[in-house]
Amino acid sequence: MAEKKLTKKDVIRAYFDWIMFALSCQNMERMEAPALVRMMARVIHKLYDDVEEKKKVLLRHTHFFNTQPLIGSMIPGIVLGMEEQKANDSNISEEMIIGVKAALMGPFAGIGDSLMVGTYIPILLSIALGLSGESGSLLGPIFYAVAYLGVMFPLTWFLFNTGYKTGLTAAQSILSGGVKDKINKAINIVGLTVVGAISAQYVKAKIGLIYSSGQMQVDLLKSLEGIFPSLIPMLLTLLSWYLMDKKNMKIGTVFSHICNYGCGSNIHENTGTLTMR
Amino acid sequence: MSFTQAFLIALFGYFASNYSPWLIGQMGGWYTIGRPLVAGAIIGAILGDIQQGIIIGAAIQALYIGLVTPGGTMPADVNFAAYIGIPLAMVSGSPAEYAVSLSVPLSFLGVSMVYLVITVNVFFVHLQERWIKEGKFGLAGNIPIIGSVTNFVFRFFIIFLANYYGANYVKQLIELIPTSLGNFFIVLGGMLPAVGFGLLLKYVLKENIELLYFLFGFILISVFHLPIVPATIIAMFLAYIDFKYSKEEVA
């Protein structure tokens, strides 16, 4: 079997597919996953001949994925490298690729948001404001655009390309080390913990059942939060996992249940007696 | 404002929105021409007074200089504030303070549009999944282009109409959107990620007992309020301990 290899051109195109479309179809359910699917869909014919194999690859990238698209461009790079390696070596497991994505998306989002959005951009903008805030000089906007793009464009490509090379070699060296299962498990632990952590950040649901009798009011939410902060979002996440994994419920069904609950709670909110938020 | 001017401003406003892919994604769009200071220069050029555009843009920029938009949450959306606030202030000949005061309700309108767009977009993800299962890989790969239509509709047309019909229209537009509708999308938007995480868990989880790691990560944030990077380092520590002390498996 001939070796499946991506050319430099493929990697550059994958970079642009990610950088451009990371957010263009962002959605509340899977966030930036559609862009990963696009990136893989455009190189898939170079990696696999079998249609069922191609489906498997693309489907594993439809899962929830969210990071800071620019600083986090390293992750799609790693994914691309690992997928190329996997096409040649069936020893690389699907779990490893999914685990790596899950483990990295949180930290890269955190670093990107604080360093680029929270530090680099405000510094550039304050210099630019100093240049043109009072006078309305064109110097400020030009300085900002040049300083921002001049750094970010090469940096994002560097991150993506480094990720790609890392993905290729890391997968190889893990396999040759003979501790594949242990490393898989370690990646899995980091992945699961990070998924738990970002669930706590993203999922928001409240229950506002207030039992009142005369002067006495019992706020159910307050008592629950006292036992376990964010208990409802956690239960909601576990419930949707349980329904999909253990009850084999279709995503669409779970989705519509949640929509119904959302609608229901909104109506209740308007009547005022039974508030759910 | 002439039709052409409103059209051009709306076009740039769309390119400058967070979800527009066309100027190398977020890089040239949201983080470059999406910044009110840069937007001020562009709008100024379209309306024929670059200097005034930049002065008003700078005033709005100062208000939102430290705006960080982490993850799926959006505290304020500067897109409408810049591409509706600046031109309306310029046309009416008002001082920069007028644009700044207008920018606050406009940024909230922008936020409800963000939630609307990313809720509607859920439809496209399911379409993409169906197309993959049917073997239509080309179409599935084009979902990010097809799906960008939602953002185009809610950015281009609102910016165009607001600029073309003027300040009174904007006031009506903000009043038109009932708070309950905005609430609805925010409530729904808060719950939907649960489905995404549930699906991810289905693939990452091998044994049920491993849910403990998930719960551990959840508690690190919800109870201990750790930032994500230290939480990841703790996770790496756990993984290392597991790696070091678990028995070698015979391959």
Automatic annotation (TrEMBL), chain B:
Predominant subcellular localization, coarse grouping: membrane
Residue intervals passing through the bilayer: 6-25, 37-65, 106-127, 139-164, 184-205, 212-241
Keyword Cell division: no
GO-annotated biological processes: phosphoenolpyruvate-dependent sugar phosphotransferase system
Pfam family, one: EII-Sor
Xref: PANTHER family: N-ACETYLGALACTOSAMINE PERMEASE II COMPONENT-RELATED (PTHR32502), N-ACETYLGALACTOSAMINE PERMEASE IIC COMPONENT 1 (PTHR32502:SF8)
Entry protein name: PTS sugar transporter subunit IIC
